[in-house]
């Protein structure tokens, strides 16, 4: 999953578009925020993570030097034997997709 940090002066949306393009050479057509996570650390630092659903018509992946391979995975239930599912809690992806679809519909009204 492409990801990174927001640079000074950058919006969340600009950071998402930049990170996805840097890491995959894909330019998303649309992005929708679907999940926010706030984590507090022992040293009193706070990390805010935002997960976006992105759509694109592009299908060609060209990895950056940061990555050695990519793999398409299906959003499956949390009890799946899929290694990626267990590592990244991909069981939540169907919920994120549903939320993104709700947001997309609401934006069209």
Keywords:
alpha+beta; 19% strand; two-stranded antiparallel ribbon; 109 residues
Description:
- It is a single chain.
- The chain is α+β, with helices and mostly antiparallel strands and 109 residues long.
- It has one domain.
- The protein is built from three helices and two strands.
- It has helices at 12-24, 83-88, 93-108, and strands at 30-40, 46-55.
- The relative contact order is 0.15.
Topology:
Blueprint: H1 12-24, E1 30-40, E2 46-55, H2 83-88, H3 93-108
Antiparallel strand pairs: 1-2
Domain unit count: 1
Question: What are the segments in which pLDDT stays under 50 over at least 5 consecutive residues?
Answer: none
DSSP summary, beta strand count: 2
What level of helicity do the residues show? 25-40%
Write a short abstract of this structure:
By secondary structure, this protein is α+β, with helices and mostly antiparallel strands. Helix content is 32%, strand content 19%.
């Amino acid at each position: 999953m492409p990801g990174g940090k927001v640079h000074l002066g950058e919006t969340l949306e600009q950071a998402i578009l930049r990170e996805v393009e840097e890491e995959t050479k894909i330019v998303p057509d649309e992005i929708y925020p679907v999940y926010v996570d706030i984590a507090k650390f022992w040293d009193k630092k706070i990390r805010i993570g935002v997960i976006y659903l992105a759509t694109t018509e592009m299908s060609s992946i060209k990895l950056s030097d940061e990555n050695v391979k990519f793999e398409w995975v299906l959003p499956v239930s949390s009890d799946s034997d899929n290694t990626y599912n267990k590592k990244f809690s991909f069981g939540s992806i169907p919920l994120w997709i549903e939320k993104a679809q709700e947001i997309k519909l609401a934006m069209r009204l």
